[in-house]
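Hypothesis: this fold can be encoded by more than one sequence.
Test: take the structure tokens below, design a sequence, compare later.
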């Protein structure tokens, strides 16, 4: 029997519906359940063939468990090693290199010193930074937000450099991004599952949360194809099995605004019934596919093109 587990936190509608959907298909030798952990012993986490991860970004203990499970052969969705290494600034750097339009973005050192450091720890950092060059590059209005994500926490819209310095003083030890504002005509949030299944959802981030999926954007078939290609390209390079990409259209150009969401919102009350049914069905089918392909004791993780190409180069040296 190959077991599919789902590891989750406060959410309820997606995890329970996912388990029910997998089991309702009655695939011989396949069963799904919520992950149950009563102990974690090194090199012995081999109970599950597939694990859907919805919470380890907030619980380091779970991330360590998932790495152990991956070493033991579990196909963890998403790859816990890559997820541990990834962050939003790197994603923007990668997007530039693979030809995906993104807002002009810079990364900023934390306003306050990190723990166990002093001014002597920053001998290589110019003081002051080239603020004039930074502001001229990004422009105003601009957004400042944590480089490692965190939803909408610690996100600021800034209109001038005086406002920037005032708000930056509030960010403490957070490493922040300063990013160009994209004044968009249309906006889309796009699920990508298995690196091949894409659902493009009109989305209005300026609406109240419960109305954000209630928008009347109507992209042409050509625009849908263009956005799907961008979503697939991003996820192929990053190697995420389950992710959302947010695209803002300015003057007909889709800009990737946020595309590091490996545990994206999938609650029925948030995304709406139609989108919810799609993500449950698609995630269930993909998890079953991974379970059927599972090879005990081997590496069953998904690795992105960025990592794979680097590994190939090393082999050729």
């Amino acid at each position: 029997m190959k077991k599919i587990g789902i590891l989750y936190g406060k959410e309820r509608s997606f995890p329970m519906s996912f388990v029910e959907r997998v089991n309702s298909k009655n695939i011989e030798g396949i069963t799904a359940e919520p992950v149950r952990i009563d102990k974690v012993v090194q090199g012995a986490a081999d109970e599950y063939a597939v694990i859907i991860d919805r919470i380890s970004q907030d619980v380091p203990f779970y991330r360590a468990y998932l790495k152990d499970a991956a070493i033991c052969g579990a196909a963890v969705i998403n790859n816990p090693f890559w997820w541990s290494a990834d962050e939003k600034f790197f994603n923007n750097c990668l997007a530039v290199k693979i030809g995906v339009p993104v807002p002009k973005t810079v990364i900023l050192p934390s306003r306050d010193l990190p723990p166990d450091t002093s001014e002597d720890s920053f001998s290589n950092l110019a003081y002051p930074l080239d603020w004039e060059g930074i502001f001229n590059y990004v422009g105003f209005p601009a957004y400042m937000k944590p480089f490692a994500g965190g939803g909408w926490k610690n996100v600021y819209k800034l209109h001038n450099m005086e406002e920037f310095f005032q708000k930056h003083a509030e960010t403490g030890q957070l490493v922040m991004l300063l990013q160009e504002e994209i004044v968009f005509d249309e906006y889309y949030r796009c699920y990508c599952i298995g690196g091949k299944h894409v659902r493009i959802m009109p989305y209005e981030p300026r609406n109240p949360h419960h109305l954000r999926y209630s928008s009347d954007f109507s992209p042409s078939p050509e625009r849908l194809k263009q956005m799907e290609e961008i979503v697939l390209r991003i996820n192929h390079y990053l190697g995420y099995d389950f992710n959302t990409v947010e695209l803002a259209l300015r003057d007909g150009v889709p800009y990737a605004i946020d595309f590091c969401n490996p545990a994206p919102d999938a609650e029925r009350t948030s995304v709406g019934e139609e989108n919810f049914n799609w993500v449950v069905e698609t995630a269930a089918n993909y998890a079953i596919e991974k379970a059927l392909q599972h090879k005990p004791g081997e590496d069953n993780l998904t690795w992105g093109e960025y990592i794979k190409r680097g590994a190939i180069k090393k082999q050729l040296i």
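The first helix runs from residue 13 to 24. The chain is about 35% helix and 20% strand.
Hypothesis status: open.
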